[in-house]
Amino acid sequence: MHHKVVIVGGGAAGITVAAQLRRGQPDLDVAIIEPSEKHYYQPLWTLVGAGVFPKETTMRDESSLIPAGVTWIKDAVTTFDPDNNTLMTQSGDGISYDYLVVAPGIQIDWDGIPGLAESVGKPGSGVVSNYSYDTVESTWEAIRNFKGGTAIFTQPATPIKCGGAPQKILYLADDAFRKQGVRNKTRMIFASASGAIFSVPKYAQALDKVIDRKGIETMYLHNLVELKPESKEAVFAHMNTGERVTLKYDMIHVTPPQSAPDFVKHSPLANADGWVDVDQYTMRHNRYPNVYALGDASSVPTSKTGAAIRKQAPTAAYNLLADLTGSGEEHQYKGYTSCPLVTGYGSLILAEFDWDGPAESFPFDQSEERYSMYLLKKYGLPAMYWNAMLKGVA
HSE of 245 in the Cβ direction (CA atoms, 13 Å)? Predict the structure, then answer.
C-alpha cells in the first residue's frame, strides 16, 4: 500500500493538517492512519469534570471528521522504517509513503504511579481524573458529593497536554465547595512537580493572587509517586531532595504522567527523550527531510495544546506542500500557544504567549479574570474547533 502523504494520527493535529493539505492541493493523495472510531474535544473535559457539560458533548464520530478525499486507514502503527519510507501497522500491513506526518498525540501513563490505574474513577476511591473520557465524570461525582476533608490536586513532572488543566479543576472545585457549603471544612492542596503556578511570569502573578484569594495551599516541586488506595494516602517526592511526604486525602484529582507513544519513543524518529525529533520552527524532522511532526508527540518546546496545533498545522502543511512543488518557500512557527485558565464558574484568564512572552489577541489585559473569556472557552473555542480548525480554515 502506498500513499503520497501518510499522516499518523487522526486527532486535532492529524485532521487539521490533512484538511489544509487538501485545501492547498485538492488532488493530493493523503491517508490518515487512526484506530479510534471516536474523536474527542478534550479541552472541554475540564468543564465536564466540573459538572457544566455532559461528556457526550465532547465526542463525535471520527468518520464525520475525515476530510473529503482523504483515505482513512482504521489501524494502528507499530513500527517506523524511515530509511525505507515505510511503516508497519498492527494488522500486519506495510505502508509506504513519499511524505510522512507524525501526529499521534500523547500517551497517558496510568501505570506510572503505583496505585493509580486500579483506583482512578472507581466509586468511593476518592481518586479522580479529567484526563480520560472514561474517568472524567467521576471528577464531578466526587466534587458534588464532597462533605469536607482534604482535597488534593496534582501535576506531574512529565510534559502534559494542556499544562493549565491540573489547576483549572482546582479552582472550579473550590467554587463548587463554597456553593455546597463545605469549603470552610476543606483543606485544598495543589501539589505540583513544577516550581511555580505557571511558566509565564505575567500570568503566574495573576494566578498567585487567585491561589491566595481562595486560600489554597501549594506544594511546589512535589511529584506524586505513589497512591495507597486502601489507606487513602498519597506519597510525594521532592524534585530536588527526593524527600518523601505522605498525605491523607478524601479526594485527589490526579494528572497522570505522560510521554510520547511507545511506538514513537522506540523508533528511529525519536530524540533522546522519546519525542519526534523535529525542527521547532519548520516542523520538519531533523534527520529525515520528508518527515514532519507536530502536536503533542513532537519535540517542539512549547505547551502541548490545541492552540499550539492551530499554529503548527499551517506551518507543517505549507512546508510540506513547498517540498512537493519545489518552491523553496518556508513558513516558520514562532511558538504560539494559548491556555484558557478557568479560575471559577464564570471567570477565566486567557493566557496567550509564544517563545518571546505574552502574545495577546485582545485589546485588554488578558491576565485579568473575565466572564467574556469564560464564555469564549465554553462556547466559542469548541465551535471554532469543530467548524473551522478541523476543516483547515482556522
Answer: 16
Phi and psi of 112, rounded to 5°?
Answer: -70, -15
Q: What pTM did the predictor assign?
A: 0.96
Domains and CATH numbers, the chain: 2-106+260-335+386-391 (3.50.50.60), 109-258 (3.50.50.60)
CA 261 to chain centre: 13
Amino acid 36: pLDDT = 98
Q: Cβ(32)–Cβ(76) under 8 Å?
A: no
Q: Are strands 186-192 and 149-155 parallel, antiparallel or unpaired?
A: parallel
For the chain, give the mean pLDDT.
98
Rounded distance, CA 372 to CA 357, Å? 23
- pLDDT tens digit sequence for 342-354: 999 999 999 999 9
Candidate list 189, 293, 294, 339, residue with the active-site label = 339
Kindly indicate the confidence band of residue 315, based on its pLDDT and cuts at 50, 70 and 90.
Answer: very high
The DSSP secondary structure of 147-200, one letter per residue, reads -SEEEEEEE-SS--BSTTHHHHHHHHHHHHHHHTT-GGGEEEEEEESSSSS-SS
| Alpha carbon distance 334, 301 (integer Å) | 11
- The cell numbers describing 118, all together, are 486500579
Selecting among 120, 162, 269, 317, the annotated active-site residue is 162
Q: Which three cell numbers stand for residue 113?
A: 504511579
Q: What is the pLDDT of residue 71?
A: 98
82 is catalytic: no
Residue 383: per-residue pLDDT: 98
pLDDT for res 47: 98
DSSP, res 112: G
Q: Which of 90, 33, 92, 24 has the alpha carbon at shortest distance from 62?
A: 33
Active site residue 13: no
Cβ distance 233 to 247 under 8 Å?
yes
Nearest Cα residue to 364 out of 356, 355, 373: 373
Place of cell 473555542: 381
The x, y and z cell numbers of residue 172, run together, are: 472550579
At 377, is the pLDDT very low, low, confident or very high (cuts 50, 70, 90)?
very high
What pLDDT, on the 0 to 100 scale, is given for residue 289? 97
What is the dihedral angle through the alpha carbons of 8, 9, 13, 19, rounded to the nearest 10 degrees?
A: 80
- In the predicted model, what is the mean pLDDT of residues 148-155? 98
